[in-house]
Amino acid sequence: MEQTPLSLQQNEILVVKAVEPLHVVVDIWRVLYRARYLSDHANPPTSPLHPGDQLIVTHVSPESMTPVERLNRQGERDGCRYELSEYQAIPQQASTGKKRDMWP
What we know:
5% of the residues lie in helices and 43% in strands. The chain is mainly beta. It has a 6-stranded antiparallel beta barrel. The longest helix is centred in the C-terminal third of the chain and has 5 residues, at 92-96. Residues 1-5 and 95-101 have low confidence and may be disordered.
């Protein structure tokens, strides 16, 4: 299990492909990763994550958590913050097989 995929950089954009109760599938450099996510309890999101949402890496952490903030449709930060961790690359065949209908 990877803790930090592909050495994420500050201000890098991640695209949400699917949302599960405790995990999201994100596109990072055209590779799909399943990651555990937690919302910021001090500043809870006003609406849940949805496929197509964009997340920006707010800063690079030496820990295993990646702090991100959601961007609105205009590309501006909307104040909804999350932490991603426990990244697992999704094999290419799984992303192009039967599950394709789940991940737009």
